[in-house]
């Protein structure tokens, strides 16, 4: 269910984002720990749960992410709420990521609610994606979902994925932020629909 190139994407996003700043990412170490637990559980679910259920959950998660980005509800998470909500969000993101490689929706909504500055937001996303990548590989290997061939293919995908990221950045500059964002949302909406259709 998880394309091998996803691991390459996560590694590149993580390392690139971490380069933008590491001052406050230590706030999220507990989230990273609960993510690791969730990842193991999500990967295990791939071996026992009907794949259609996992497709449905992944599709709903992507759809919620699209709706959140489109309507932009005002979500504010106080420091007091963050202390106990953060680990729960990490666990949820881990389960979702372990089963589908889609960590993003719960994490993005949570981090947006913290009202972080741009640099802190980028660093937090990079830190959590990088921390999620290693447990994901280990869990998939332990559960026999990923083998040697998939691992080698993931490593080989780093270069083309990097080229794709650079092309995407150029497109964003040429098309402008708002239009590019709408195109991305449209692509994510198609992805959500595809996943939900596979679940039917």
Beta-strand proportion: under 5%
Number of separate strands: 0
| Helix/strand class | mainly alpha
From the spread of the alpha carbons, the general shape counts as globular
- Number of DSSP helical runs: 9
Question: pLDDT average, as an integer?
Answer: 76
Largest sheet: none
- SSE pattern: HHHHHHHHH
Helical content (DSSP H or I, runs of 4+):
over 70%
Domain count: the total is 1
- Rg, please? 17 Å
Low-confidence stretches: 1-5
Span from first to last CA? 16 Å
What does this structure look like?
The chain is mainly α and 200 residues long. The chain has one domain (5-199). It is 81% helix and 0% strand. The chain has nine helices and no strands. The protein has helices spanning 5-18, 29-48, 51-71, 79-100, 104-113, 118-142, 148-156, 158-175, 177-199. Helix 8 (158-175) crosses helix 9. The protein starts with a helix and ends with a helix.
Question: What's this entry about, in short?
Answer:
With about 200 residues, the chain is mostly helical. It has one domain.
Ordered list of secondary-structure elements with their pairings:
Layout lengths: L4 H14 L10 H20 L2 H21 L7 H22 L3 H10 L4 H25 L5 H9 L1 H18 L1 H23 L1
Helix pairs in contact: 1-6, 1-7, 2-4, 2-6, 3-5, 3-9, 4-5, 8-9
Record keyword descriptors for this entry.
200 residues, mainly alpha, 9 helices, 0% strand, disordered N terminus
């Amino acid at each position: 269910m998880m394309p091998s190139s996803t691991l390459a994407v996560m590694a590149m996003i993580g390392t690139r984002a971490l380069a933008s700043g590491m001052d406050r990412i230590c706030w999220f170490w507990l989230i990273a720990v609960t993510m690791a637990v969730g990842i193991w559980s999500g990967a295990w679910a791939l071996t026992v749960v009907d794949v259609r259920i996992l497709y449905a959950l992944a599709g709903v998660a992507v759809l919620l992410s699209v709706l959140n980005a489109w309507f932009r509800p005002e979500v504010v998470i106080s420091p007091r709420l963050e202390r106990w909500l953060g680990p729960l969000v990490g666990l949820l993101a881990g389960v979702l990521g372990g089963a589908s490689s889609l960590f993003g929706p719960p994490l993005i909504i949570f981090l947006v609610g913290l009202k972080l500055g741009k640099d802190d937001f980028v660093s937090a996303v990079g830190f959590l994606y990088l921390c999620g990548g290693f447990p994901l590989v280990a869990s998939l290997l332990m559960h026999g979902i990923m083998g040697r061939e998939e691992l080698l293919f993931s490593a080989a995908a780093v270069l083309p994925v990097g080229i794709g990221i650079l092309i995407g950045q150029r497109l964003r500059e040429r098309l402008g932020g708002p239009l590019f964002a709408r195109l991305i949302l449209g692509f994510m909406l198609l992805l959500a629909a595809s996943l939900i259709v596979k679940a039917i």
